[in-house]
Fold this protein.
Amino acid sequence: MPYVLEEGEITRKPGSYIQISFNDITAIFKQPLQSGIGNIYTSPIKTDSFMRYTIYTHDEHETTVIYKGTKPLFLPVTQEEYLTTLIQAEGKKQKERGTPVSIDDQLKEIDKAYQELLKSDKVAAAEFKKEMERVRKEFIQNSSFEDMATLYQKELARLSPANRKKQAYYAVHAMEQYGNYSGLVPEGEEGNAIALVKPNEKAIQTDSHTIRLMVVRWNLATPPHSEESSPRLYRRENSVGFSLADDKMVELYENKEVWKHIIECIK
């Protein structure tokens, strides 16, 4: 923690830190594609290397991955697997929310309220009827919208058996451009999307005393001096406070002798 002078007082504040995870593939990722669908992620991007090991970036979350195994750390998620997971997740949400009221039932309730109001205040009932007609039109216009689970099921039904087994590729513009609410892009558009993957837990199956994977995340206190708080892109300031703390953290990053001994512990 760096010492800083603030309003005439010397104090310590949180500065640079290093976060290390062992045998946890999910530490490479920033977060899953969306909540409720388990460990399905967009594929991390190989950004650089560190001591011959890979540096990945995932949603601006950079990690150094020390792994000596031969099995892949990530496995492809098929289109069928992704859509099936979405359908199951949406079904669970609907179950938690309860059965939604149908549009017909909503219109009946509105008409019932109008009839009751008509008995006591015809002027107010006339105004209510105008508003009721507007609401009715909105309901009818929106009646074509289906619940998300049905939309996902239709997407799955459109896929051929061969395409169901192909890796899923996701893009935020897929709904607008292709009408796919899942975010999947059609065949031939993979170049404008990013692959979906899941952790390969079999790659690091081990007893509790063996380290097969180490994931390192560096966090510098002065991001303006680096990209995404990465020490590999940091420019030394050799000054006090947060910059000095970052300088020391970069010295650790560049100490090959220290890292050589650490890497020897990974099996």
The mean pLDDT is 85. The longest strand covers residues 61-67. The longest helix spans residues 122-142. The CA atoms of residues 35 and 192 lie 24 Å apart.
